[in-house]
Specification:
Number of strands: 9
Order of helices and strands: HHEEHEEHHHHHEEEEEH
CATH class: Alpha Beta
Shape: globular
Strand order of the largest sheet: 2-1-9-8-7
Number of helices: 9
CATH architecture: 3-Layer(aba) Sandwich
Strand content: 15-25%
């Protein structure tokens, strides 16, 4: 269902880049889904930036300041995961660097000097939103965080994410670290085609262990994945500069959706408002 990126480009929903055709050519099949009708959100949203996309056709169904650049916090980790999955095998062994103890923000508390697989570190990155996992993976792949950031920005341009600028692999606040809801939706649709990413974004929890036997229990930071409901996968992000950010993949009765929130004061209340509107179907809500 996530292989219909070409239709999004044909509809003109995302900024085009010459090298985007390289990524499209990687897809063995492209299914052009029929167009969907726009939706209307029946309720107020605290989020400053919001987009809702049809996950199959790539058509934008709702937008609020979709192209305004803002900090995106740990939604950044979708790009970190994409680069790792595209270049490494899950069973590769990584040594946790000593410097991770100084990483700020959310962490899995990876023990320095111990050895974990790429797969386990990806789980810490996407389920627990661990900044120490992001820094560990970045240094393993590129030798330094700065070199990894250069690759993140290059990959973003190849995907047509012209409204995005990365300065670290975790999503920590920086004056030049920002994206747009539209770009993150595009990144989500592309990265979800990798089962190594989609399975972790949809897992409520997982236990990982180092080769030395250190065990760490991970719990997904997206609260709605711990409830019975239509949210199938997601990613959170929270910093002082970004506010509350959220990406959700939602299963609908007739179609699935990608929902991205930037700078929300109450992201789960916002999501419940959006989910209630999606449950009514694609027909616009009549004005009162």
């Amino acid at each position: 269902m996530y292989l219909s990126l070409l239709s999004a480009l044909l509809l003109g929903l995302f900024p085009a880049a010459d090298s985007v055709s390289t990524d499209i050519a990687m897809l063995e099949q492209v299914q052009i889904a029929p167009s969907s009708e726009s939706i209307e959100i029946s309720g107020s949203l605290s989020a400053s930036g919001v987009v809702v996309y049809d996950a199959l056709s790539g058509q934008r169904l709702f937008a609020k300041q979709a192209r305004i650049q803002r900090p995106m916090a740990s939604l950044t980790k979708l790009m970190t995961a994409l680069i790792i999955v595209e270049n490494h095998q899950l069973d590769e062994i990584v040594t946790v660097p000593r410097g991770v103890v100084d990483v700020t923000g959310n962490k899995a508390y990876l023990p320095p000097g111990k050895h974990f697989t790429i797969g386990d570190l990806l789980s810490a990155l996407l389920i627990n939103s661990a900044n120490d996992a992001a820094m560990t993976l970045a240094q393993f792949h590129s030798g330094s965080v700065s070199a990894f950031v250069d690759e993140m920005n290059e990959r973003a341009l190849r995907l047509g994410m012209t409204g995005t600028s990365f300065r670290n692999p975790a999503g920590l606040d920086h004056p030049a670290h920002w994206s747009t809801p539209q770009d993150i939706a595009w990144l989500t649709m592309f990265s979800m085609r990798y089962k190594e990413i989609s399975s972790r974004l949809g897992s409520s929890g997982r236990r990982i262990a180092s080769r030395e036997g250190d065990s760490i229990q991970l719990y997904h930071t997206h609260a709605l994945l711990h409830e019975v409901g239509p949210v199938m996968a997601g990613k959170t992000g929270t910093t002082t500069g970004a506010g509350q950010c959220l990406m959700s993949v939602v299963e609908g009765a007739a179609q699935d959706y990608i929902v991205v929130l930037f700078n929300s004061n109450q992201r789960y209340k916002d999501m419940q408002t959006i989910l209630s509107s999606l449950e009514t179907g694609p027909e616009p809500v009549a004005s009162q």
